[in-house]
UniProtKB/TrEMBL annotation, chains A, B:
Any one annotated GO CC term: cytosol
Listed GO biological process terms: formaldehyde catabolic process
UniProt-recorded name of the protein: S-formylglutathione hydrolase
Reaction equation(s) it catalyzes: S-formylglutathione + H2O = formate + glutathione + H(+)
InterPro entries: AB_hydrolase_fold (IPR029058), Esterase-like (IPR000801), S-formylglutathione_hydrol (IPR014186)
GO MF annotation list: carboxylic ester hydrolase activity; S-formylglutathione hydrolase activity
Known EC number: 3.1.2.12
Highest taxon above the source species: Bacteria
Pfam families: Esterase
Amino acid sequence: MTVVSENRCFDGRQLRFRHAAETLGCDMHCSIYLPPQAQAGPVPVLYWLSGLTCTDENFVHKAGAQRYAAEHGVAIVSPDTSPRGDNVPDDPEGAWDFGLGAGFYVNATEAPWSSHYRMYDYLATELPALIAAEFPVQAERCSIFGHSMGGHGAMVMALRNPGRYASVSAFAPIVAPARCPWGEKALSHYLGPDRDTWKQYDSCELISAGATQLPLLVDQGEADNFLAQQLQTSLLEQACSDSGFRADIRYQPGYDHSYFFIASFIGTHIAFHAQAIARSQA
Amino acid sequence: MTVVSENRCFDGRQLRFRHAAETLGCDMHCSIYLPPQAQAGPVPVLYWLSGLTCTDENFVHKAGAQRYAAEHGVAIVSPDTSPRGDNVPDDPEGAWDFGLGAGFYVNATEAPWSSHYRMYDYLATELPALIAAEFPVQAERCSIFGHSMGGHGAMVMALRNPGRYASVSAFAPIVAPARCPWGEKALSHYLGPDRDTWKQYDSCELISAGATQLPLLVDQGEADNFLAQQLQTSLLEQACSDSGFRADIRYQPGYDHSYFFIASFIGTHIAFHAQAIARSQA
């Protein structure tokens, strides 16, 4: 692991590092914010998963999360959104919604994607082990959240790994990738035509299949241009309602899909996770 | 004036607009954040001047200022850092510290710069008039702040226009452009070789020449790579001390020149200006 940049921020440390990711077969960049409390001892850790086209850096620069992480004494890890590098295949036409920057947090099974696009395993196993080994975090005290494709990824990680995360939250998540154009394009390429294999990566399907309850918070902007066709938050409401899964799903009038929306509510989400982590320990 | 984007942020409006800037002989972009209080009536306005290479957008995306602007009920205007467009001359070698993105907030007098590079007049006259005409602001209740080259610009604007701004503040400002490489390059090209003409754009010279007191706050990171050669905060301390000009100049251990530094203290600066504006009215 090589630290490529470090900046002091809200009396903590904003770090960016590079490492050889065995799961993905490529070098990866990842960012982590360590709050000032980490100087005195290990702190809980939140994982942030970003949306389509993002790297590990968008969140770091635009969300304004460091202030709240410093306030609550939590680290925030923000990984990249796909494998990277000259050897990693991309969409043949360079589309922004598939391939590089659009890994959808799955383990691809179809060629040529299956050799590198294994973001699910990377996030479930390799990255947390690296973070635990290299940084002063309480690896077992963690939560996960994300935006759009990353909101999808965060919910899938949490719903498929009961007991691992104290809580999960999402901004404008893709709640049912098997039923929207972005998701259908990605899953059909990464996983092939058998839609049964898609269900393990579809939050609505996981909840309908009886996923274990954990605290779930969703914020969705009402002026989000992707709401009707891609995000379809109502499908999550329906799945939760049908399954008796308790979720706090909030519609925010006037807000769109941008980081201005994320910045406006990131403090609420970080407080939500900090409280869930504290409660889960008690 | 044409609004090119609008995003809801902390219950206010983050706007970007384009207008034909007569002073500069080109079209300009400018951003403004209107806090939620502006829905009920006009609000005070802060002007933020950015540093080398920035446009009007860096501050909008990276400073995390909207939260504090919403808290204190102030608008923040962030203009671009130079004239722009195909007709505007740039450094022949495309240097990042001169020409486009590096107007230094002066009125150039030398060809070919003098036809467009008139950022001082743009900020002193044209832009405030436009803001007052188009947005719900109390134009007379204003303060100004900035970063690096923009910290220089903010201090020069405030020191040369007594009574106009309730307060001024700066992050890592160029305090003596006549005595540092960035400033010497820019001023010699924009203003010519007669160094007497440079003094009107040099904060230390203006203070030494008896500028009128106003509240002045400066934050300077101790780990800033540009401190020793370019920023030379000690020259400002000396000028203030020699002239009896009261300033709050703070060194922040470990902080560098980046927006991570700005984000960490932007809340303090916005509170400082809000209080100064409130006090100046009382």
